[in-house]
């Protein structure tokens, strides 16, 4: 895999080619990735995988016309043809009054903050094999587990470089390590399955494989013999495993492109309190070892920790340069880009801050409630905020987790859910989007 400097040089040279060919402006993104994995099932080796690849994407402008192209062939001949094709495509494209590179005065300069996302420790297939076996063995050892759907361990590394024709050039590298296990509990028609996984930037931060496997087994066994609760209005708690999905709906709704298209249920809500007082939602791209950390955004802009919601009030949209021009605001450093097209908008390490009450206190807040541990389907309307999803989890009575429930739906409207939700104090940073246990005092519960 190319070094940071070599990767940056690749992107810079493609931009130079585009400008020399007649482009008024251009940017290029280079991505190289390598990964390896080991999969086992019932103690036997099922698969060993290894892959490496590199791609480069070019976006160029002829006035207000633009085109984006990409290639996995990085030979001089292929890149020359890539530029020619992009020039021809841009010449036929419609004019876009909002098109263009990011504002030059907002570009990131210098080496950038240390996000500490690269683990230099080498990873051996033998070690990954042992981790996968240990995870599965621990899961199968849980009483009530009857079969395995497999366990795996993996590692990857990547480098991303971005260059623009108006002065930006940067690159960063990252690694990841992971272990996952899935098992089946019970027999026949009563079988239930569940899983557990963990992913980190550094191997030293990865949970022990046997702990991951044991958790997968315990989760599967706990789901045996589910019932259906009575339909009607009921408090619903979202376990951290699924609570982060609520932040995903929020992030999509404050994306500049959704706002500019008037296709968001949060349209017109900037500066308004849509969450309860005290609720804070933060995007932190600079968290050391964060799974979505980055020293600059997809257009080369500086990034920083941002309070998207403070004391329940929406403080900002997330906008790339094009949507920011449409909205008449400055870009916010949330542009995200792959090699296959122009920038979109995405959060980085997104989380809702912990609340004052513990998970146990939230569980005991009502005589009866439902704890959701799995969500099924995509029943969310991003324009209206209407929310209805299949779910599974557990009944909660007098603060104690009781029998499992399955084949249910939980429904409401995201505006109502946001206005009343309460985060617990059990926040942990384990994913790219994190949330503690979240209590919604009232939702409609029905049969799936």
TrEMBL record:
Organism phylogeny: Bacteria, Pseudomonadati, Pseudomonadota, Alphaproteobacteria, Sphingomonadales
PANTHER family, per the entry: METALLOPROTEASE PMBA
Domain Metalloprotease TldD/E N-terminal: from-to ranges: 26-90
CC terms in the record's Gene Ontology section: cytosol
Domain (Metalloprotease TldD/E central) ranges: 119-224
Pfam family, one: PmbA_TldD_1st
Domain of life from the UniProt record: Bacteria
MF term (GO), any: metallopeptidase activity
Sequence similarity: Belongs to the peptidase U62 family.
Start and end residues of each Metalloprotease TldD/E C-terminal domain: 231-446
Name by which UniProt lists this protein: TldD/PmbA family protein
GO annotation terms (biological process): proteolysis
């Amino acid at each position: 895999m190319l070094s940071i400097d070599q990767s940056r040089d690749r992107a810079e040279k493609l931009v130079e080619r585009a400008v020399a060919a007649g482009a008024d402006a251009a940017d290029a993104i280079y991505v190289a990735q390598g990964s390896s994995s080991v999969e086992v099932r019932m103690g036997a080796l099922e698969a060993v995988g290894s892959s490496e690849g590199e791609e480069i994407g070019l976006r160029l402008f002829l006035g207000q016309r633009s085109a984006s192209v990409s290639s996995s062939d990085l030979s001089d001949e292929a890149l020359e043809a890539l530029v020619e094709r992009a020039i021809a495509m841009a010449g036929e494209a419609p004019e876009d009054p909002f098109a263009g590179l990011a504002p030059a005065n907002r570009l990131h300069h210098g080496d950038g903050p240390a996000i500490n996302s690269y683990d230099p420790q080498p990873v051996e297939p033998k070690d990954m094999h042992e981790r996968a076996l240990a995870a599965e063995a621990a899961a199968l050892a849980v009483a009530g587990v009857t079969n395995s759907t497999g366990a795996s361990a993996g590692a990857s590394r990547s480098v991303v470089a971005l260059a623009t024709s108006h002065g930006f050039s940067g690159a960063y590298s990252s690694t990841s390590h992971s272990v996952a296990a899935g098992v089946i509990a019970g027999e026949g028609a009563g079988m239930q399955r569940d899983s557990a996984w963990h992913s980190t930037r550094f191997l030293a931060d990865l949970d022990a494989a046997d702990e991951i496997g044991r958790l997968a087994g315990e989760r599967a066994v706990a789901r045996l013999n589910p019932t259906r609760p009575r339909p009607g209005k009921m408090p619903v708690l979202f376990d951290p495993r699924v609570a982060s999905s609520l932040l995903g709906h929020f992030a999509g709704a404050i994306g500049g492109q959704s706002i500019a298209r008037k296709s968001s249920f949060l349209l017109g809500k900037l500066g308004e309190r849509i969450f309860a007082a005290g609720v804070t939602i933060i995007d932190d791209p600079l968290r050391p070892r964060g799974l979505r950390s980055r020293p600059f955004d997809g257009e080369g802009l500086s990034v920083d920790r941002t309070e998207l919601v403070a004391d329940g009030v929406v403080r900002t949209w997330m906008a790339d340069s094009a949507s920011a021009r449409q909205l008449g605001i400055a870009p916010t450093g949330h542009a995200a880009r792959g090699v296959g097209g122009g920038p979109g908008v995405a959060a980085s390490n997104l989380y809702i801050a912990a609340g004052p009450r513990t998970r146990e206190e939230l569980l005991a807040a009502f005589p009866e409630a439902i704890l959701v541990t799995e969500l099924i389907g995509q029943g969310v309307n991003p324009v209206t905020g209407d929310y209805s999803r299949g779910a599974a989890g557990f009944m909660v009575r007098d603060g104690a987790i009781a029998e499992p429930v399955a084949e249910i739906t939980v429904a409401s409207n995201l505006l109502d859910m946001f206005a009343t939700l309460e985060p617990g104090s059990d926040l942990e940073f384990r994913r790219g989007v994190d949330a503690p246990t979240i209590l919604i005092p009232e939702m409609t519960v029905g049969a799936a």
